[in-house]
Amino acid sequence: MARTTSLTYEQIAGAADAITVRGERVTTRSVRDELGSGSMATVLRFLQDWRNRSNRQGQAVDEMLDLAVIKAINTHIGLRVRDATASASERNAELLTEIDGLLVENEKQASTIEEQAGNIESWKTSHAAVSARVGELENTVARLTEELLGERQTGEQAHIALAKAELRLEAVPRFETEVAQLRAELLQSQKEAATYHEAAAVAQARLETSVVKK
User: Fold this and answer.
1) What torsion do the CA atoms of 105, 36, 90, 75 make, to the nearest 10 degrees?
2) pTM of the model
3) What's the confidence (pLDDT) of residue 61?
């Protein structure tokens, strides 16, 4: 993720002016040290703007100078060219150092971005695994719920069958009483039938005896 730039041109220009007033050389690192924080890339960009504006202001001052003064200054052109050449060489060295710093900083940011991308991929993999596990658990819960409902129905059926069996068992004593009563009545009927049969036999014998006497 890109970092938000917090420095402004006015802050960098103020730091560069302060360094210039002290008679020190204005560089990207000196400006950054003056501010105490900030990105090297931001300082370099705004500092270049500050140098361009300073050069334009110097050119404007030169144009306003009296021609005689300009001629007097031209006598020192050789020295200025030499100094400018030396300054340019030194500035080029500073720029190379600053570029190296920027490259190091960019490499760190690239490494951070790559690490974050790896974390995102790892999170995606973990998320996919968790989603798959959640799907498995949902299927398991659905299957267990179905099995529980089936077992509940089976239990209800078993409870009904048990209640019917208990009703039959409760009816057994009544049936036994009825059977005993029917057995007693049957025995009594058999006794009465035997009595009637005996009486009929006696009557038949008497009838036969009476017929023979006549």
Assistant:
1) 150
2) 0.31
3) 62
* End-to-end alpha carbon distance in the chain: 148
Please tell me the distance from the alpha carbon of residue 83 to that of residue 75, in angstroms, as a whole number. 14
Task: Round to whole Å and give the CA distance between 44 and 102.
Answer: 10
Residue 78 DSSP label: H
pLDDT of residue 81: 35
> Contact 31/47 with Cβ under 8 angstroms?
yes
> Domain coordinates of the chain in residue numbers?
9-120
For residues 47 and 12, the answer to whether their CB atoms sit within 8 Å is yes
Calpha distance 37→25 (Å, rounded): 19
Residue 77 clears pLDDT 50, i.e. is over it: no
- 38 Cβ contact partners less than 8 Å away, ≥ 6 residues apart: 6, 7, 12, 32
**Joined tokens for residue 12:** 């960098």
Nearest partner of 43 among 94, 84, 86, 111, judged by Cα: 94
Q: Is 43 exposed, middle or buried (0-12, 13-18, 19+ CB in 10 A)?
A: buried
The predicted-structure confidence for 21-37, as pLDDT tens digits, reads as follows 999 999 999 999 999 98
Dig out the tokens for 189 from the structure. Answer: 């009927």
